Amino acid sequence: MQPIVFINNISIEEQQNWLAQFKLLLPNEVILLPEQINQAQAEKVQIAIAANPDAKVIARFPNLVWVQSLWAGVEALVAAVKQLQAENMLPSLQLVRLVDPQLAQTMAEAVLTWTLYLHRQIPEYIAQQRQKKWLQLDQPKAQDTRVSVLGSGELGVNAMQVLAHHGYRVSGWSRTAKNIPQVTHYQGSSALPEMLAQTDILICLLPLTEQTTGLINRALLQHLPKGAKLINFGRGGIVNHQDLIECLDEEQIGHAVLDVFEQEPLSASSPLWEHQKISVLPHISAMTNLATASKVAADNISAYRTSGNIPVSVDLKRGY
Ligand code: NAP
User: Is the separation of the CB atoms in 145 and 131 below 8 Å?
Assistant: First the structure.
């Protein structure tokens, strides 16, 4: 059996933790770092496990059959593979992103937490405290609060169900039609304005693709009722931050919770840090869990070794 290569750009400590975990879960596999594999061996490697891989390193393994990502968001990996294929440095290969029920649960917790934060007007009460202002604001009921989720995928659907369970009026939006209990679902670009017009809190759980880059811009935000709030847990590049700041300053948008940014860590000079109506989070809404994610990846690898089946993979053209 050929070794599996672990192509990563994470800290040495994280790298060692993943390797130790894979050793326990896949005792019959040899998992090596790229630098431990010579070129003759590299040409025989069929499986890679990837965490922030560098395109140049992937190119050293020209006969990869599939790559298991340890992250759910794979836009960087998709871009690297597309670039290598355009340069004829890599044959067609399958990219498998992380689909982990634990990640979906963690994301649903974050969605509920920050929806409650906005719905229960915590930013407003924090601002009032700073001014020593004792003022009880009107509190809309959850049943009267319309929460819409962009992206009805592995993470979005779970989040919608948790929101509906907590009494919110939930809508969802994706490219294709879905039937999700207790959720009003919209599909495709033409249906988006109708959903936005009936949204108090908009949550983004979309992948970053050519179609979604800059999707949340001034034009989209203008479709929301005045004072609506935004949570972005997808990717930074989906939001046009300059447009968002303008919409916040014009009170078109009431508050934004941002967990993801084009440049991470967010630069100290970014105006997002100090904006009164923005809550900045350091990409923590749903972090990959080492124990559960390694089990998902190991099960995928074991299934491939016994059946030759590769799990559902990313559509490189679509970008997710
Ligand atoms: P997924 O299962 O692939 O779901 C993506 C959803 O987005 C699908 O419903 C898809 O529609 C929809 N979509 C994609 N492009 C669209 C478009 N142009 N118009 C309308 N809908 C579109 O992905 P997931 O596992 O739910 O993850 C979503 C994203 O969350 C990841 O890509 C990643 O960027 C982000 N994420 C963030 C964190 C964090 O900590 N902040 C953690 C994990 C993941 P269809 O169903 O119709 O195909």
Answer: no
